[in-house]
Amino acid sequence: MRRHGRKQTPMPGQACSRRWKSAPSNGCLAAESRTEDAGMRKFVSGNLNYSSWSIRALLMVRHLKLDVEEEIVPLDFPDTTARLAEISPTRKVPLLLWDDETVWDSLAIIEWLADRFPDAGV
Predict the structure, then answer these.
(1) What domain range is 66 assigned to?
(2) This prediction's pTM
(3) Are strands 101-104 and 20-22 parallel, antiparallel or unpaired?
(4) Does residue 99 contact residue 39 with C-beta atoms inside 8 Å?
(5) Which of 41, 51, 61, 122 could form a disulfide with 14 if both were Cys (CB 3.0 to 4.6 A apart)?
(6) What share of the chain is helix, strand, coil (3-state, %, to 5)?
(7) Is residue 104 part of a domain?
């Protein structure tokens, strides 16, 4: 059920953390980013109105100015669990798909990005 009749629009940028698992990146967009080799990169979040955990990781992605595809999975639809099962090993958001790595949990995403981009001063 969509609240207030407003459609959630995606925001650019995503992030990741130390909780990662090697997995195929599912439907990711090849994009130019701050890394030397642009590969399959995607950030999956929940509705930003209802998922403050997604916002935490998104802020890190924006701070780093990463060029990744963003997908918002509405958390209040009947097929949400099935959709998350297709893309997330934990069926939760936020989730970062980066080349052949999958990172979930907002803190894990932030730590992973901080390790990957040490020159950013995070």
Answers:
(1) 13-120
(2) 0.66
(3) antiparallel
(4) yes
(5) 61
(6) 30, 20, 50
(7) yes
For residue 22, what pLDDT is reported? 38
Among 29, 11, 99, residue whose Cα is nearest residue 112: 99
pLDDT (mean) for 84-104:
92
Whole-number Å distance between alpha carbons of 72 and 94: 9
Is position 94 within any domain?
Answer: yes
The closest of 105, 92, 121 to 17, measured between CA atoms, is: 105
Nearest to 11 by CA among 41, 52, 44: 44
CB 69 within 8 A of CB 43: yes
Residue 45: predicted pLDDT? 94
The conformation of residue 8, written as its DSSP 8-state character, comes to: P
